[in-house]
Amino acid sequence: MTKLDSKIPEGPIADKWTNYKNHIKLVNPANKRSIDVIVVGTGLAGGSASATLAELGYNVKAFCYQDSPRRAHSIAAQGGINAAKNYQGDGDSTYRLFYDTVKGGDYRSREANVYRLAEVSANIIDQCVAQGVPFARDYGGLLDNRSFGGVQVSRTFYAKGQTGQQLLLGCYSAMSRQIGKGKIKMYNRHEMLDIVIVNGKARGIIARNLVTGEIERHSAHAVVIASGGYGNVFFLSTNAMGSNVSAGWKVHKKGAFFANPCYTQIHPTCIPVHGDQQSKLTLMSESLRNDGRIWVPKKKEDAEAIRAGKLKPTQIAEEDRDYYLERRYPSFGNLVPRDVASRAAKERCDAGFGVGTNESGEAVYLDFSSAIMRYGREQVNIQNIHNASEDKVRELGEKVVENKYGNLFQMYEKITADNPYKTPMKIYPAVHYTMGGVWVDYNLMTTIPGCYAIGEANFSDHGANRLGASALMQGLADGYFVLPYTIGDYLADDIRTGKIPTDSPEFDEAEKAVQDRIDFFMNNKGTKSVDHFHKRLGKVMWNKVGMARNEKGLKEAIDEIKQIREEFWKDVKVPGSAEGINQELEKAGRVADFLELGELFARDALLREESCGGHYREEHSTEDGEAMRDDANFTYVSAWEYKGEPSDAVVHKEPLVYENIELKTRSYK
Amino acid sequence: MSWVKNTFSSSIGRKFAMALSALFLMFFLLQHFAINITSVFSAEVFNDLSHFMGTNPVVQFALQPILIIAVVYHFVMGFVLEAKNKGAREVKYAMNKGQANSTWFSRNMIYSGLVVLAFLALHFYDFWIPEISTKYIDGDMSGLMANGDFRYYEEMVEKFHDPLRTGFYVLAFVLLAMHLLHGFQSAFQSIGARHPKYTPGIKKLGNIFAIAIPAGFIFIALFHHLTSH
Amino acid sequence: MSAHKGLNLTLKVWRQQSQKEKGQMETYQVSDISPDSSFLEMMDILNEQLIEEGKEPVAFDHDCREGICGMCSMYINGEAHGPGRGITTCQLHMREFNNGDTIYIEPWRAKAFPVIKDLMVDRSAFDRIMAAGGFVSVNTSGNTQDANAIPIEKHKADQAFDAATCIGCGACVASCKNASAMLFVSAKVSQFALLPQGQVEAKERVQNMVKVMDEEGFGNCSNTGACEVECPKGISLDNIARMNREYLSASIKGE
Questions:
Q1: Alpha helix locations (H) across A219-364?
Q2: Residue A571, class by beta-carbon neighbours within 10 Å (0-12 exposed, 13-18 middle, 19+ buried)?
Q3: What residue in C sits closest to A238 (Cα-Cα)?
Q4: Residue A529 contacts C where some CB pair is shorter than 8 Å
Q5: Which of A336, A592, B118, C216 is the most exposed place for a label (fewest CB within 10 A)?
Q6: Cβ neighbours of C145 in A, within 8 Å
Q7: Inter-chain contact A132–C160, Cβ cutoff 8 Å?
Q8: Cβ–Cβ under 8 Å, residues C180 and C220
Q9: What percent of chain B has pLDDT over 70?
Q10: Smallest Cα–Cα separation from C195: which of C231, C240, C233, C147?
Q11: Tell me: domain A16-263+435-494, CATH 1.25.40.10, correct?
Q12: Segment A328-381, tens digit of pLDDT
């Protein structure tokens, strides 16, 4: 247990970061030119880190598996980015953002990291505006804000429903500038397949050129993992198809601890699964819950009739609808945090009230008809229309809703062929974000010296549940403002090291292991495709390690995943050749890692005998189904050390100390 | 002046020059039409205007060279750009649905342009070369026939006797109309003149111009073909 | 919800082993495709089928599958991202097709976008254009002025946003009869030209970006407007006109 040193600086929380920055070692500009840094992943975290490190003078090598850094999945974030600017004068402050984030994370995050995040958040907005990111503005020309679930202030900056896209393109622009100058060497369509450790320090990676199939050695004085989350362990998720855990998992296998793998965010408003041929789930922004009311039928027979296609939702009378969030959580209603909303939907569907067309009936309604009529009546007053007909009110209301959510409604209609202005949307929770990740200290360094993890790939800031619009904030904070400082403290000792040679035995060995695994896949005479195993893994994860977990299910899951993994290695079939593009080979490597992570994930969930945030254990809940935390025994980070098989992994506990916030039960009633 | 060279060898600079020459040619076309249409009403007015244009030093030695440069540039650059554009897609699509996203006129400017070029060759052969030869080689600047009348009207009417030539003339103007249906508004776009308030008007004006002017020329041709014996 | 009546389709797919080798169209049959499936899910099914038959699956680019990353890039039945407007291939659903249809599936075709395998093309030319000037030269020190120090007219900010929604998929190049990249480049030039932050280096930006665009071998714009129609994000031709203005004024006024 003594292996974990979080390196939190001394002093009052508000001064820690400033004091720390004032006392760390610096690398002078001339020396930076002789230091190389590898960054794996080019999303908000990796992109911003690459750009900033290059600006500072380091030689950056950036890697992404996509054909351009601009395609990283940060681009898909819709809603917005939080920052404690207090432009609205509604009482926001660094402390409040810090407090909301810790509370939203169900008191399972590290205070000092979260405070620093809140502290640098305001800078992010300044930076992005200076880069030309077109945030939404009001008629006075100043920046506009909106509010998000789980908080009481308006601190979310946004660019319509494409905030992630605009921020990522800002990063990509900053990167492009450095690529043009030659300070970043960009490796598109490259996948990191292992990290190379020399004398106990991270000194390079082995990567596969996905176009030529060549295995390449790349050396550096430090390696930064910014490869995002591992939600695709569930097969179906809102993550991009290529999102994977491999970079994080490789460093884990070489000595980096993996923290809180079981903390997964299930987003309540996604388009439900339509069938077995589905490859991917689509998120509908959380902002829809501002105006949409969530319900299922009160009577089981109505739900059955809907599922059978005999009844339409609009035919169900108001008194026969169960607005279960409003019923259970009168004070927050439809705007309860994501984990609460997701579990409530599952509870209703499990009880037989679901309205989905798939086998398990998994869907609930998100209904805008009240909002449409409310806005319509408002417009009637504004426009001074007397004796407006019901249809007129509805028409005016639909216009208002269209202005607010038009693009989302359109997206929904394209996917489902249902018109959400006329009939309620069907939604169901889906895997969206993983709070767990590679364990890092205050410097964002993993337990491998010289190996850093930033953004969603690390575990540090969101505890057991992430608040809306905080992922973008963390990615950019890590990349623009935190890592560039903390990495200097480490690299200051490397100014005389010189170029790291790639012909060392350590590189030989790492490359050989990578090559062997590829050869195995290519030569394995299996019968089943990679997706076959991935789908099976996903089903186990979703059913037994998903929104609600219990001891029996978790134990079964551990056995089943092990079983699938064994079958995978025996029977997987990878067609084609390893020379040149082979997407099946790429997937095989990723799924092999998911099959190991999945088991550790389930073990972590089994270990955590409490319910907190996204982790919900049925054994640890109140009678009316609310989560029960166990602060006395579980106020810690579980950090897993790799020892061979996932079943051999050893847990280390980093106690979480709360000096500035009092632990309370989260209540949204 | 390397900036001039750089600008006009860039893609945007070339399109700009294409647009400028096009705008000049369209202005010329309008002016040509204004003179020709008088022939329908009065041979005398037509003759007077023709003589003025044919002998006025500003028209002959300032505007005419510009016109020739514009015509030559527009055609040569049209070919150069077409070749470059064809080269930008070496392998063609097995299945391409151009009509789904653009007009036939806009995609086939090279063909409508080629027909207009063929017409111009004929036109030069019919009118411009004899004119130049009479005026500057024979040195006869009088514009008079043996009987003392101006020769312009007669010369023109005579050309429309031939039904084949008239037919080709009509066809060429139909293709010119197609060329203009895209070209008029395209020229404005190329010079960057686009505005939500004015662009719809420009497009409308372009359509009127593109149809009315060639239709007018066709009318003149048919008029003389049918009325002269 | 539509009743599940599976579609049987004939697919004509471009197969090409690598950039160096020649390719050809191949014909495949798929059956019982759910109309609720997306086009890429249909491609997944084809690939599963090919793997089962011991053949190599069709390589195609895709990632987010929600219409924002710009990775997917198929020319379907003669149109970039297939029939339908304002969508990428991953947002195209099989209900747009009828039972018994033949579907042509080809890669983007442009000299500047060489095919690297089957339906995958190399779009790094776009990255190189971006590196030539698609940025505001401000360091990420965090010591810039306050975000609200310069008010920006809402109308302008909205226009800049509209231009900035480009996903860099290359449908404009694929659709243009000249394989011109003007819509892509103009969207980035416009975004920055409309904002005060970007105006400082607007002249150098447009000149440098256009220079690289020309060098990469894209064709010339002839204003057919096909790009605007096929653009999944509806980027407007206004941007091309604005870039023309910016470029010409930079050429005349620049030093």
A1: 246-253, 300-307, 324-328, 338-348
A2: middle
A3: C64
A4: yes
A5: B118
A6: 126, 130
A7: yes
A8: yes
A9: 99
A10: C147
A11: no
A12: 999 888 988 888 899 999 999 999 999 998 777 899 999 999 999 999 999 999
User: Which residue in A87, A242, A581 is closest to C120 by CB distance?
Assistant: A581
The tens digit of pLDDT for each residue in A471-495 reads 999 999 999 999 999 999 999 999 9
Whether residue C2 is predicted with pLDDT greater than 60 in this model: the reply is no
Q: How far is CA A646 from CA A91, A600, A641, in A?
A: 47, 6, 9
Can chain A be said to touch chain B, i.e. do they have 3 or more Cβ pairs within 8 angstroms? no
CATH placement of domain A508-635: 1.20.58.100
- Which CATH architecture best describes the domain C123-138+150-253? Orthogonal Bundle (1.10)
Q: Say what the pLDDT of residue B1 is.
A: 64
Q: How far is A279 from chain C (nearest CA, A)?
A: 6
A268-429 CATH fold: Flavocytochrome C3; Chain A, domain 1 (3.90.700)
In chain C, which segments carry CATH 1.10.1060.10? Answer: 123-138+150-253
Q: Where are the domains of chain A?
A: 16-263+435-494, 268-429, 508-635
Nearest CA in chain B to C177: B107
CATH superfamily of C7-117: Beta-grasp domain (3.10.20.30)
Q: Is A363 on the interface with C (CB under 8 A)?
A: no
Q: Would you list the domain boundaries of chain B?
A: 14-87+102-227
| Interatomic CA distance for residues A38 and A224, integer angstroms | 6
**Is A203 a residue of the active site?**
no
pLDDT of residue B229: 61
Of the pLDDT bands very low, low, confident and very high (cuts 50, 70, 90), residue A214 is very high
Looking at chain C, the domain(s) classified CATH 3.10.20.30 span 7-117
pLDDT digits (tens, 9 = 90+) for C49-59: 999 999 999 99
Judged by CB atoms closer than 8 Å, whether chains meet at A176 and C144 is answered as no
The tokens describing A5, both together, are 């040193």
**Best CA proximity match to B209, nearest among B169, B170, B172, B182:** B182
pLDDT of residue C119: 98
Kindly report the nearest CA distance between residue C195 and chain A, in angstroms.
7
Q: Is the pLDDT of residue A1 over 60?
A: no
Q: What is the pLDDT of residues A149-206, one digit of tens each?
A: 767 788 999 998 899 999 999 999 999 999 999 999 999 999 999 999 999 999 999 9
Q: Which residues contact A490 (CB under 8 A, 6 or more apart)?
A: A222, A443, A445, A449, A450
8 Å CB contact of C165 and A162: yes
- Chain A partners of C135 at a C-beta cutoff of 8 Å? 131, 173-174, 176-177
Q: Which of residues 124-183 of C touch B (CB under 8 A)?
A: 175, 177-180, 182
Enter the pTM of the model.
0.95
How far from C167 is each of A165, B151, C87, C170, C179, CA to CA, in Å?
8, 64, 11, 8, 17
Chain C interface, mutation test: which of A82, A169, A175, A418, most C Cβ atoms within 10 Å? A169
Neighbours of chain A (3+ CB pairs under 8 A): C
Residue A148 has pLDDT above 90, yes or no: no
| Pairwise CA distance, residues A401 & A414, whole Å | 18
Helix, strand, or coil here: A386? coil
Q: Read off the pLDDT band of B40 (50, 70, 90).
A: very high
Q: Measured between CA atoms, how close is A634 to chain C, in angstroms?
A: 36
C–A contact (≥3 CB pairs within 8 Å)? yes
Kindly name the residue from A96, A338, A394, A549 that is annotated as catalytic: A338
Give the list of residues 6+ apart from residue C195 with CB closer than 8 angstroms, or none: A132, A134, C152, C156, C157, C160
If you count residue pairs, one on B and one on C, with CB atoms under 8 Å apart, how many are there? 140
